Amino acid sequence: MLPLNENLSTMTLSGIRRFTSLAAQTPGCISLALGEPDFPTPEPIQAAAKAALEENLTHYAPNRGLPELCREISRYETGLGYDCTPNQVIVTAGATEALYVALMGVVNPGDEVIVPTPAYPLYRSILTAAGAVMVSMPTREDGFQLTKERLSACITEKTRAILLNSPNNPTGAVYTRESLEAVASLVSGKPIWVVWDGVYNQLSEGNVPEPASFPELREQLLLCRSFSKPYAMTGWRLGYLMGPEQAMERLLLLHAALVAAMPTFLQKAAVTALHTDVSDMVESYTRRRAYVCQRLDEMGLSYPKPEGAFYIYPEIASFGLSDEEFCTRLIQEAGVALVPGICFEDKGHVRISCCCSQTALETGLDRLEAFLKAL
Question: Where's the Aminotransferase class I/classII large domain (predicted)?
């Protein structure tokens, strides 16, 4: 084989996909592994896309995104407390591209990015591609929150960004205002970006504190969001990136070089999405999380209380198996798929996703309980 980029030699496929693939190859297996809404995309959003196609809105959109959508995103974010303009928006191919543009745009080879762990595996992949160094900052001992002491110990002259995700995947934890105050006190006014992965912001049991509420961080904040999770639009691949206007003008060049622009008819549907009521879905996830927590309590498993997203992260270290062995055996012997903590730069835990029917959830947890009793 001819030479390739050296960074590719250290990149691997997501462990999440590996376990969902194993589940798919196992007859009768119930997957509680993948974090993808099981609801259809709401009808008004589908109708808007169809109408746009019928109007032949299939030509190139502006690189930044449709002006109408950028205005609506700006309006939406302003309502959440981020006073911004449409010129601070770039419509992206999901939050994945938003994160890629944000991180590739602010780091150089050898720069360090602090990532609280457990963390979504995509982060390491992007940083590896960028030639940057991911500095893992464990949070388990701090209740999956951020502390000034631990964060301060991670910051060096090479630190260029802190990458934060709340509500968190895989724990479901929501960073408190005190956690964000710790960040602000250490990085405000310094050459350190705060990259905020806020894809689950609408899937929480209350208001999610965000760094945009700290005026002193506004010029250092890069905000990534997605339409995938809150609107059940994972296959549509739509998201957006926001930040200081001057920086966004430069990041727009990277986005334009990667994808040029997102499809026009999809962006028209995204405008409708921002005005679509998804409270029924959110309430369903809340009920499912509560049900899973009740069942885990009955099984005697400990876990951080989930306050958002659609994940629960129980500890399984006491069973004498590595989390990877635990999940492999669970699929093979009980027909239930979870994701091991090692996929999130952690160990001794597994992630349960609530993205399935109540019947599948009940059956899957019944099987998990029987598996634990047999160990």
Answer: 29-368
Cβ atoms of 338 and 352 within 8 Å: the answer is yes
Considering only the C-alpha atoms of the chain, give the largest distance between any 2 of them, rounded to a whole number of Å.
Answer: 60
Helix (H, G, I), strand (E, B) or coil at 164: strand
Q: Which residues contact 72 (CB under 8 A, 6 or more apart)?
A: 271, 274, 275
- Provide the β-strand partners of residue 116: 137
Domain extents in the chain: 6-41+278-374, 43-273
Instruction: Yes or no: say if 217 and 82 are a contact pair by the CB < 8 Å rule.
Output: no
Question: How far apart, in whole angstroms, are the C-alpha atoms of residue 171 and residue 234?
Answer: 20
Q: How far apart are CA 30 and CA 321, in angstroms?
A: 21
Distance CA 122, CA 131 (A): 14
Render pLDDT for 263-302 as a digit per residue (tens, 0 to 9).
Answer: 999 999 999 999 999 999 999 999 999 999 999 999 999 9
Domain 6-41+278-374 -> CATH class: alpha beta
The class (CATH top level) of 43-273 is alpha beta
The DSSP symbol for 330 reads I
pTM: 0.96
CB 105 within 8 A of CB 126: no
| Phi, psi dihedrals of residue 221, rounded to the nearest 5° | -100, 130
Q: How many CA atoms lie within 13 A of 334 on its CB side?
A: 23
CB 174 within 8 A of CB 166: yes
Residue type, 168: N
Query: Hey, is 260 helix, strand or coil?
Result: coil
- Fold match between domain 6-41+278-374 and domain 43-273: no
